[in-house]
Amino acid sequence: MNDADKKRLLREMILYRRFEDRSFEAYMERKIGGFLHLYSGQEAVATGVLEMAVVGQGRKNDYVITGYRDHIHAIKTGTDPKAVMAELYGKETGCSKGRGGSMHIFDASQNFMGGYALVGQPFPLAAGLAMGAKHQKTNQIAICFLGDGANNQGTFHETMNMASIWNLPVLFVCENNQYAIGTRIDRSTAVTDQYRRVEAYNMKSSQHDGMDIDIVMAAAKDAIDYVRKESKPYFIEFMTYRFRGHSMSDAKGYRTREEEAEWEKRDPIKIYSRRLVEEGIITPEDIKAMEKEVDDYIENEVIKFAEESPEPKVEELTRYVLDDNPDPRWIGPLQQ
Amino acid sequence: MAETAYWEAIRRAHDEEMANDELVIAMGEDIGVAGGTYKATLGLYDKYGEERVIDTPISENSYTGIGIGASMTGMRPIIEIMSINFALLALDTLINAAAKIRYMSGGQIACPIVMRTPGGTAHQLAAQHSARLARMFMSTSGLRVVTPRGPLDAYGMLKSAVRCNDPVIIIEHEQMYNLKEDIPDEEFFRPLEGAEVVREGSDITLIGYNFSVHLCLQAAKRLEGDGISAEVIDLRALKPIDRETIRRSVEKTHHAVVAEEDEAPVGVGAEIITGIIEDCFFALDSQPVRVHAADVPVPYNATLEKAAIPDANDVYQGALKALGKI
Question: Which residue of B has its CA nearest to A59?
Answer without folding.
Answer: B73
